[in-house]
């Protein structure tokens, strides 16, 4: 990494920081800015190992008058968000989206050249890309702490940085851009950064659609244009017009697992919003095309279609515009609950695609290829990717909710109690009903409100075109009957629409049995008749890590995929694996390219689904340039994993992983499940108790409101530990595993061999290294000092920090490094730049948590808001939060 790249990032951080300082001085006076600078100076010197300054920082923060606490937290939070903007801008400018070691950034052109060298024909490359089915599934997990109104201002600040950088020869442009930058930073400072109300599922869906409108709408045709140019160079042909290697799906408004706010009515509303937004975006495209396609030369097919007119393309586009306007009006009327009185609408992708394709073919036939491959091709690419719904909406529900419907139904029909039947009885009953011609559910059946809601969801499926919907996911799936139940309810209530059904295996036990469950399922002739030769299976990352610890979960996920690949191959079924990854390491996070290439060979065979959640959507897809690069990374990784798959692990490495996972799991469970002090310590030392106040997402923080840590969702569980910088869920247990192995003969050598030659293990160690660098046991110790009184709990905290240090020593030993992140200077620098701004927020948060507890949760509105701002600021500073 050259020095000037770092300088560019540093310069932008300084420009934004100086502007923020001036804004705060205008608002609160220079004296207040001096306080902020004093706090930052103490934090910076404290970071250099100056214990005196660490103490002075804490003393300074504790002596702040109460009226200063909120503006101080806001100032540091705002700086961290501006630092993120500078880094995003840097990454977009220098095509660095992911945190790779220098030189390891994947570039599609280089990959195509490597594939050619490996004997893959140009035709094979085109065919593989054309048939690739990669779906990025946007989810609204509650980790996006920044309000949408601020995100829009931050995007505009990014544009100002571009304008300033491009104004060398035009100083007046630079001056204008600097003025606009000052205005935007002032707007951001004077905007409340915390939502006052929790977003609804519809709000979350609107946020997802806004990402498409503001970024992906432009990035998608740009991505295909770049791909076409590469293929023309490499293979002499473009990607087929209807090919869409990458598509988008969504869980926003469809994920009802543990979220009572997602109802059938909400799902219907979100589907209509997607139709309205798609129509609105296509209208802009069609208006532009109508302006541009003024040619008179056309082939006979288009002339026949357009009639006797001078400008046949405009005639076709005028008709499309009329129908698209009617479509938008129809969606609006349905949303408003009124009748649509307009003309015919565009119901399906093909109704939009076919007329545009006719225009394209005509232009090519009459020698106007240059025009055909301009704006018209961009619109055709958008139709191939977004259809007329923008995304495919997935639906997700917990297995027990479907079983409850069957229990009530069998009881009402005097067939017995479904709940009491064993798995064989359930399968026999469900398969019989799947082939029966008579309906099972009585027309006027009176069932519970919960079961009615489940059935109403299947009615939404029945009323939709299948291309509007994605996959039906069953969380907490454990048996073939869980899948058959959904198939039966879809047949009974869902009409002619039959969605792919994906069981989600998420606990350690479920992952270990995933292959056997799918094997039994695919062996059922009645089920195979339903699905044909395609099966989708979802692998859960968050809950398995929470259940078993990160190392044991990662190995279980790997083995489950291997088993599923083998099972599906033996049945002659195409498998699509759906990875439920989050943003953090504890939830399967990390660079997508490395993660995909670390999967078992054969598991990424041209198809892949993966969740993109919360704030990671903004970091990867929030701006067109970044989104373009992220799409290239996904296409690159899936193409490489398909054409040049990674090697299978050596038998010895598998044995090593079995041993490491076993030791890690035992150590993790010994603390989290078996130590009676663990739950009280977790509650005392983290802000878990007040997390519910932060209006992050539409889902409750717990699956059930009663119960302990086991009822907590994986996201707030990780969020709470991240706030105090201990990051415990992502490493606990790994230290014992690695330390024990390093103490044994040949341990270091075999671990290094695995790291260098097995992508799965190498990627795992890279993630662990990044996590250890972001964690900080001294900050966790301060939270404990301020918030924990009982000696037994303090003793547990000491042991946990010792385990952390033990792991850090072991990881550096395996990596043969003096310090963490020696080979990834960009991440190292990003952490170092942010720490002096995050540290004061930690100190303030601990203080505010103590005040909150002293007052039994009854603190002033300003202090409560300040506490929430500390959480938002720490989340922004660490980026991948939950």
Description:
65% of the residues lie in helices and 6% in strands. It has 882 residues and is mainly α. The chain folds into 4 domains: 162 residues, no CATH class; 124 residues, de novo design (two linked rop proteins) (Up-down Bundle), CATH 1.20.1440; 195 residues, TIM Barrel; 173 residues, no CATH class. The protein has an 8-stranded parallel barrel, surrounded by 7 helices. The radius of gyration is 28 Å and the shape is globular. It starts with a helix and ends with a helix. Keywords: Carbon dioxide fixation, Lyase, Magnesium, Pyruvate. Its EC number is 4.1.1.31. Homotetramer.
List keywords for this structure.
mainly alpha; de novo design (two linked rop proteins); eight-stranded parallel β-barrel; globular; 36 helices; 882 residues; TIM Barrel; 8 strands; disordered N terminus
Could you give a short description of this structure?
This protein is mostly helical and 882 residues long. The protein is 65% helix and 6% strand.
- Helical segment count: 36
> What is the residue-mean pLDDT, rounded to a whole number?
90
The tally of beta strands, per DSSP, is 8
The number of distinct structural domains comes to: 4
Biggest sheet character: 8 strands, parallel, barrel
Keywords: Carbon dioxide fixation, Lyase, Magnesium, Pyruvate
Active site: 141, 546
GO molecular function: magnesium ion binding; phosphoenolpyruvate carboxylase activity
EC number: 4.1.1.31
